Amino acid sequence: MPKQITHGFHMVKGKSNHAMEDYVVSEFKQVSDNKLGLFAIFDGHLGHDVASYLQIHLFDNILKQDDFWTATENALRRAYRATDDEILEKARVLGKGGSTAVTAILINGEKLVVANVGDSRAVIRTNGKAIQLSVDHEPSKERSFIESRGGFVSNLPGDVPRVDGQLAVARAFGDKSLKLHLSSEPDVAVEMINDGTDLIILASDGIWKVMSNQDAVDCIKHSKDAQSAAEHLIEEALSRKSKDDISCIVVKLQ
Fold first, then answer.
1. What percent of the chain has pLDDT over 70?
2. Which domains does the chain have, with CATH numbers?
3. CA atoms of 145 and 159, how far apart (whole Å)
């Protein structure tokens, strides 16, 4: 039986002194005979211009790949690389900052394709269990890659590991000054939506720093709709003292 699909998103600025640096895409789009759900969280750093650029251009770059329908994973990897190249070429305009990204494309309500760089995360709930589809790209996990390109990972007491003592993620768009030591290669996962899958969450690390995947799916299991679920998820993260900018998208499949 075809699922009824609804979606909602919510964003809250954190306690930092800078402006909100997160951007979100949450929409459905008809492409030929296919209905695509396009969902993304872009968590910017050192300015919001790179995240803003991604919001406008990344899905366009993905969907214009000739082999999107036949070799989706390869198309996504190529589009991520091409978009990062564009951002680096425009560094004078976009600035020195960067952005993490997690994207999810839901094809005809049947197939979910997730890609990510950084630490924003995609989680689904299947038969009540939380399943993470993205990969957290932490500097400590990718130390060998970073060091092989001449970089280093700092481990200062009281701080998180950072690439060259600066960035707390090992993969991101932009960050031209760190690019020699930083990858923009996404991890890609493809998941078929079965009868037991009823929820998709995309969220920035402001949620995942204070909540486990299972905490997140459990906390909204009684929410009446996707929008109220997204709002409740952020309220819960704030009650647990999250101080970051927080963005989340909830997709309900009923």
1. 99
2. 5-136+170-253 (3.60.40.10)
3. 21
Q: Spell 150-188 as b/e; 16+ CB within 10 A means b.
A: ebebeeeeeeebbbbebbbbbbbbbbbbbbebbbbebbb
User: Which residues lie across from 31 on neighbouring strands?
Assistant: 34
Mark residue 176 as left, alpha or beta (left: phi above 0; alpha: psi -120 to 50; beta: remaining).
Answer: alpha
The amino acid at residue 92 is: R
pLDDT in tens, 114-152: 999 999 999 999 999 999 999 999 999 999 999 999 999
Distance CA 216, CA 221 (A): 9
Paired strand residues for 12: 246
Question: Which residue type is seen at 221?
Answer: K
Report which residue type is found at 171: R
pLDDT digits (tens, 9 = 90+) for 75-99: 999 999 999 999 999 999 999 999 9
